[in-house]
Amino acid sequence: MNRKIRLLNRKRKIYNFDTAKKAGLIFTCASEDDFIAVKDFKKYLEEKNIKTSALGFINDKQIPDHLLLRTGFNFFSLKNLDWYFRPKNQFINDFTNERFNILFDLSLTYHFPVHYIVTLSPAEYKIGRLCNTEDYDLMIETGKNKQIAYLVEHIKHYLNMIHSRQT
User: Fold this and answer.
1) DSSP letter (8 states) at residue 84
2) What is the side-by-side order of every strand in the sheet holding 73-77?
3) Cβ atoms of 89 and 78 closer than 8 Å
4) Residue 126 · residue 25 · CB < 8 Å
5) Is residue 166 part of a domain?
6) What is the per-residue pLDDT across 25-71, written as a single tens digit (0 to 9) for each?
7) Domain of 115?
8) CA–CA separation, 10 and 32 (whole Å)
9) Most buried pick, 24, 77, 145, 163, via CB within 10 A?
10) Is 134 left (phi over 0), alpha (psi -120 to 50) or beta?
11) 3-class DSSP assignment, residue 82
12) Total domains, the chain
């Protein structure tokens, strides 16, 4: 992974909901509430005319049936990882290599496959929860609240505070 990071050509730039045109959502789906929070945030972004792709990680061997045919969402599980826990599907590689204006990491716990994707993404602006990594350009403190809806609420709050300079 360190070798791939050195080869990564990433231009950093700050975006808000008015200036972003393309966003990626990556999340760990541990419950139906998690999925609903991400689905609502995706809808919010699309209402702001931001083209959004969503990728969810299921920390299990199988993806639950109720998540399989969700429009606009791709999911991967432990079955889609290689021996070193690196994701190995084409749709995951496409997501990882996409040049998003903003990449939102909505996972609340550390999972190496999600960390791998976020780290290797060439996204210009990366947002996630406060943690010990240097992967993000903006980190949101979630404290003891371990709900995606809480993280999304604070992301909306802070991104709405960022104003862009019009040239």
Assistant:
1) T
2) 73-77, 51-58, 22-28, 102-105, 125-129, 138-140
3) no
4) no
5) no
6) 999 998 889 999 999 999 999 999 999 999 999 999 988 887 877 77
7) 2-8+15-161
8) 34
9) 24
10) alpha
11) coil
12) 1
Tens digit of pLDDT for each residue in 88-109?
889 999 999 999 999 999 999 9
Instruction: Classify residue 150: in a domain, yes or no.
Output: yes
Crossing angle for the helix pair 148-161 and 32-47, to the nearest 10 degrees: 20
For the stretch 46-58, what's the b/e string if a residue is b when 16 or more beta carbons lie within 10 angstroms of its beta carbon? eeeebebbbbbbb
The verdict on residue 167 lying in a domain is no
Q: What is the CATH number of the domain that holds 81?
A: 3.90.1640.10
Owner of token pair 């509430």? 33
Strand partners, 57: 28, 76
- Torsion angle, CA of 90/87/64/53, rounded to 10 degrees? -60
Residue 53: inside a domain = yes
